Amino acid sequence: MISAPSGGGKTTLANELISRFPQSKRSISTTTRPARPTEIPEQDYHFVGDKDFDFILNTEGFAEWANVHGHRYGTSKAIVKSALDKGELLFLTIDVQGAKSIKKSFPEAITIFVSPPDFDILETRLRKRGTESDNDIRRRLENARKEMAESNEFDYQVLNDRLDRAALEIESIVRKRLTNT
Fold first, then answer.
1. Could you tell me which of 107, 93, 79, 85 has the C-alpha nearest to residue 1?
2. Alpha carbon of 98 to those of 21, 75, 158, 175: distances in Å?
3. Looking at CB atoms within 10 Å, which of 16, 72, 87, 91 has the fewest?
4. CA atoms within 13 A on the CB side of 137
5. Helices (H), the chain
6. Mean pLDDT over all residues of the chain?
7. Which pLDDT value is given to residue 7?
8. Please, what are the domains in the chain?
9. Which residues contact 174 (CB under 8 A, 6 or more apart)?
């Protein structure tokens, strides 16, 4: 499971890692957040309204869920169970709250926290997306500071200063853990 502050590169890294592990896939989270112009529904996220999210939540359909930046995000319990049953490698790209929940339910999960090189670069990445207001960016940066303060609770911490280097480091971690199981 890969966790990072918003704009930290967790989805980009997960997509890169999927190309390196043929029997892997990325879990697609469900969210109440509106889709960004560059996002493809059912490929990037399952975009749902509050009523649908509540239904999934009330029927215990989430392995974890959290309220992040004013929107709810959840990981499908069925997707996690299916991947485990098939022996697939499943990359979850989730926030710190979600990572804690998954680790409680699935103690064997590998937790990796991805840090940006610094807050200026993180802010640049968020602004480059062009999808958040100044207030949203400030809130995401404030949350990033809190999330980064919890990075020592993860099994591994990886600096995302260069995509190729960070992906190689995570690949090495995963391969090592796979050979030790």
1. 93
2. 23, 8, 18, 23
3. 87
4. 16
5. 10-20, 50-58, 77-86, 96-105, 119-129, 134-149, 163-179
6. 92
7. 87
8. 2-179 (3.40.50.300)
9. 17, 21, 89, 110
